[in-house]
Amino acid sequence: MNRTRLVLRHLALLLTLTIVYLVAGKLGLRLAFVHASATGVWAPTGIALAAFLTLGYEVWPAILCGAFLVNLTTAGTVATSIGISIGNTLEGVVGAYLVTRFAAGSRAFVRARDALRFAILAGMLATTVSPTIGITTLAVAGFARWADYGSIWLTWWLGDAVGALIVAPVLLLWTADPRLGWSRRQLLEAGALVATLVAAGVIVFGGALLPGIRNYPLEFLCMPFLLWAAFRFGPREVATAIVVLSVIAIWGTLHGFGPFVRDSENESLLLLQAFMGVTSVMSTALAVVVSERKHVEEQLRRLAVSDPLTGLANYRQLIEVLDAEIMRAQRNGRSFAILFFDLDGLKKINDRHGHLVGSRALCRLAEAMRASSRAIDTGARYGGDEFALILPETTEAAAWQVATRITERLAADREHPKLSVSAGVAEYPRDGDTVEVLLGVADRLLYEAKPHVPSRSARRA
Q1: Is the N or the C terminus of the chain less surrounded, counting Cβ atoms within 10 Å?
Q2: Which residue, 114, 149, 178, sits at the end of a domain?
Q3: In which order are the strands placed within the sheet that holds 336-343?
């Protein structure tokens, strides 16, 4: 039953991909001016490339069928349609192989180096396959003149190349991360970006600036909005902005507006597509560089405030969080607790089992702390084998319940050696109203809770 469901799901996927390819192909061939089978706008190349990179090579029948149907219903014979569809499919396979082999595959837009390799391998190199096979097939069959081979090839190649550079990135990026995850402020900013980008596109390619101005060279007006998307959002949003701008630009150019209009519609379209292809590569590469830098900054920030062994907050972050909790408690009048832990017998573990096992013991305690606390709690490695857990809006009694959960989790752990901890709790403002005092009280109570120090003011956890 499950196998049948998987087969049906796969067939539905292939059918959907075939239909999408067919529709995109028929729309693209409506702009075929130099030859019925060659257009400067060919989104199916990007669709096929993204499909191979995300779904795998096994979707080739859908690409082959879609390409065959597009060409069979356009011009030529069954034989020429088969030849062209083989070229279209092989182009996608070659592009996906090269990108996977040399540019991180579907993650090509994580690093700038891979993004540029994607542009070269998939956008410029692999896209020579389809026009070469396709036009040769048409010329041999007598549906294209050999004298026109060069002009048809250039149109075909440029349409495929721009399809790979504009359509494939937006599909790959949205497939990899379909969630928005934006705040209200970011949504408003994204809306403003889209509105102003569309306005700029209409001004440049729609003749909406002044009456009588149709072909002023104002394409540079679009660049600030792509830079805005690159610096404030990311590669996914830049790729989307490029698609939006490309649609406006194609419509305007074909209606005689914009800086790329020439006497020949095909020449106008080729100039526009060359501009959009270069703009896409540059804008996307910049967005990837900015995204890389933000990622590195975030890693550095995380390293600066976290313990490299356990991943918990380090001493510096512990002090900052305590300062913030004290200020918040002063505003809302609510207490909070700080729970101190000490891993019993760490030296014995190191001496008997080695320091790797001792380091693993510290990590096991950190894991127990994370699993036993809330998202708003902050766990930190105070130093050596001592740990702290800040519990906002928590009393001493509730803090001891957390300590009990941690102890029980360690006791249930089947990993050896067995671990136990000692604990002490300080509560704000009862035990102090400054960071230094609270830490001192918690540390003293922790020491008194050790097995060799009897005390009534602390408890063994």
Answers
A1: N
A2: 178
A3: 378-383, 386-391, 336-343, 421-428
